Amino acid sequence: MEDQRQEDPPAGGNDSGKPDLLLLKERALNVAAEGITIADMRLPDQPLIYANEGFERLTGYPIDYVLGKNCRFLQGEDADPATVKKIRDALKSGNECTVEILNRTKNGKLFWNRLSLTPIRDPSGAITHYIGVQSDITATKRAEEATQEANRQLEIANRRMKRNLEAAARIQKSLLPVKTPQSEDVRFSWLFQPCDELAGDTLNVIPLDEKRFAVYTVDVSGHGVRAALLSVTLSHWFSQLFQGPERTAASFAPAEVAEELNRGFQMNTENAQYFTMCYGIMDVESREFRYVKAGSPPLIVARHNGTTEVVAVDGYPVGLVEQPGYEEQLLKLTPGDRVFLYTDGVVEAEDEKESNYGTDRLAAEALCHREQALDDCVNAIMQSVRSWASPRGLLDDVSILAFELRR
Ligand SMILES: Cc1cc2nc3c(=O)[nH]c(=O)nc-3n(C[C@H](O)[C@H](O)[C@H](O)COP(=O)(O)O)c2cc1C
Asked: What is the CATH number of the domain that holds 322?
């Protein structure tokens, strides 16, 4: 019974003479994780008249030492003068303020202090005291700084990568036909729209002599850097094909070219890449287009008499199987006929309902713009594909290469 009375003194008083609630408040203030301080604003230099144990734990300064001192002793040279001014101004104008300030503990260790200052007024409204609450936010600050630094590094890496991609895209563009060969007999036109910085598509028109022109469109599986590397390699491969001294007309023959490419670019487990291709030679003398199709979408032929043909030919993409058995196809043309080679990005462009642009629409567009110059016709088709895909954007590279037999 004795013990119980000692632990639980009668309401209204105790041995120290303080009322219970006051004791409880003092205990509560002392167990708080934050530092809590009170400065008397009526005394010269606004000294602390109270500091809790949390303040002692945070700063390492004994309570006896801090009482009677202005709390600026926590500031070293590291404290930001603008922040100190902000505190000074708030105290002068009697406002609340919260700042984050670098302070030092008794043994010189830096810590970030989130300091909140609130005025206490007497019944007449005059400020008599300020209460300060100090929280150690060093860990949060460090984490913030680390995140900021990581973001900065990421931005640098991003900029570098963007620069590299732009440089690579310029190289890739430089491999496209610079000056499309034009003659009295045949007109060529092409458009190329990568869906990323770099494309897996490539195309070209190369005059073999005055009467024969090699054309190709290539679409490497996937897109982005990986596809672009192979597409650039293939552009070089083709330019070697047409420039190599040991080459004869037979070495440009469509089926042979496709077979050679298939041998040289077999897909393996490391590089799971293959490509579709349409490659052919337009002979304006014989008015024949001899070509090979390796998994590329059907040719569209817009005839001079206002009909269109969709010429689909089966054929494996290059690199997919060891013995694709490519066969040369023959297309006989009459003056005014137009032939459209393109990559599947054209017909697979999707509108907001995920419907494909489709071969029929492409054929209809080719017909619709038949009276326009070939360049304008190709432009109009590209425009129509773009607007079809505009709600979702192009999801694949888009290439169109067209030619028109003129006489
Ligand atoms: C109650 C109270 C607590 C304070 N606690 C801190 C503190 O923890 N750290 C600090 O850098 N400044 C603290 N200050 C601010 C400084 O005591 C001082 O007001 C500030 O440096 C601006 O005044 P000065 O320009 O005269 O130094 C506190 C101020 C008050 C009134």
From this structure: 3.60.40.10
The 10s digit of each residue's pLDDT in 97-109 is 999 999 999 999 9
- Domain limits at 390? 176-405
Q: Are residues 204 and 348 in the same domain?
A: yes
Residue of 38, 70, 96 with the most ligand 1 atoms within 8 Å of its CB, for mutation: 70
Q: Do 107 and 186 lie in a common domain?
A: no
Q: Which residues line ligand 1 (CB under 6 A)?
A: 37, 39, 46, 70-72, 74-75, 79, 84, 87-88, 91, 101, 103, 113, 115, 117, 130, 132, 134
Q: CB burial class (10 A; 0-12, 13-18, 19+) of residue 379?
A: middle
Cα torsion at 202, 313, 281, 346 (round to 10°)?
-30
User: From ligand 1's centre to the CA of 143, what distance in Å?
Assistant: 26
pLDDT digit string (tens) for 44-95?
999 999 999 999 999 999 999 999 999 999 999 999 999 999 999 999 999 9
Into how many domains does the chain fold?
A: 3
112 and 154 fall within a common domain: no
Q: Residue type at 7? A: E
Pocket test for ligand 1, best of 55, 71, 127 (most atoms within 8 A of CB): 71
C-alpha 112/C-alpha 134 separation (Å) is 10
Same domain, 374 and 288: yes
| Residue 323 token pair | 């013995």
**Which residue, by CA, sits nearest to atom 18 of ligand 1?**
72
Distance from C-alpha of 113 to C-alpha of 104, rounded to nearest angstrom: 9
pLDDT of residue 178: 78
Report yes or no on 158 lying in a domain.
Answer: yes
Q: Is 226 in the same domain as 357?
A: yes
pTM attached to this predicted model: 0.71
